[in-house]
Design goal:
about 230 residues
Length: about 230
């Protein structure tokens, strides 16, 4: 093979690779738009009247996740399954955003931490990398950390809406989340930076709870029937 033929072959390879990336970008753009639509729906819970609408907003968000699953199914057809990490950079951000949105919906519904398996189920993707298009554990963790920032905002807006007990529940949840992350040895730099942000979220929520406490506006939730 001559030098010219060799470089012609390489150019063909590069062109084919660029075509694949362009097809991926088109689908990712649609995914990003749908993610923005879900976020717009959920953002309304921060309004003073939004807390009463949480069930309906979560229902609407879950309906929109149906479109997400359709787009992800389309995305899966754009590249060989064994080359997931070769193109991962294209959908990493939107997948983290979708993990956050799924986590936020589950929290609003149950005030519980969504599992990686639950997020994968909502998105109709795999957990195990050997099975194809999957939710990388670091993308899941990034989504959870984004949710933590959203909850710190929710704690502040809960006070504005007159819901004085919600910040206490959020505080307990975030403190448990922080304790969990402390068990991890995070070597991913972007993820470590996001975790650093969690410390500020914890402090922000603690300030809200402290302010409510000294003003006598909040009490710890009571459990059981004998109190």
């Amino acid at each position: 093979m001559s030098v010219t033929e060799m470089f012609s072959y390489i150019q063909g390879f590069l062109s084919a690779d660029q075509d694949v990336r362009e097809e991926i970008r088109k689908v990712v753009q649609v995914l990003e738009q749908t993610a923005r639509e879900i976020l717009t729906v959920l953002q309304s819970v921060h309004q003073p009247s939004g807390f009463k609408e949480i069930p309906s907003k979560c229902t609407r968000a879950r309906e929109l996740f149906g479109a997400v699953r359709t787009h992800i199914a389309d995305l899966k057809t754009k590249f060989p399954v064994e080359q997931y990490y070769r193109f991962h950079e294209h959908w990493r951000f939107v997948l983290q955003r979708l993990a956050f949105l799924a986590a936020f919906v589950v929290y609003l519904e149950s005030e519980a931490l969504v599992t990686r398996e639950e997020v994968a189920q909502i998105l109709d993707i795999q957990v195990d990398r050997e099975k194809g298009f999957h939710l990388d554990v670091e993308d899941y963790l990034a989504g959870v950390l984004i949710m933590a920032s959203e909850l710190s905002r929710l704690a502040v807006n809960s006070v504005t809406a007159g819901d004085y007990n919600r910040p206490l529940r959020i505080s307990n949840f975030i403190n448990e989340l922080d304790s969990g992350f402390r068990l991890l040895n995070l070597k991913n730099d972007p993820l470590r930076k996001r975790y650093d942000g969690l410390k500020y979220d914890v402090k922000k929520i603690e300030e809200v709870v402290y302010d409510l406490s000294i003003r006598g506006l909040a009490k710890e939730p009571e459990y059981g029937g004998d109190k």
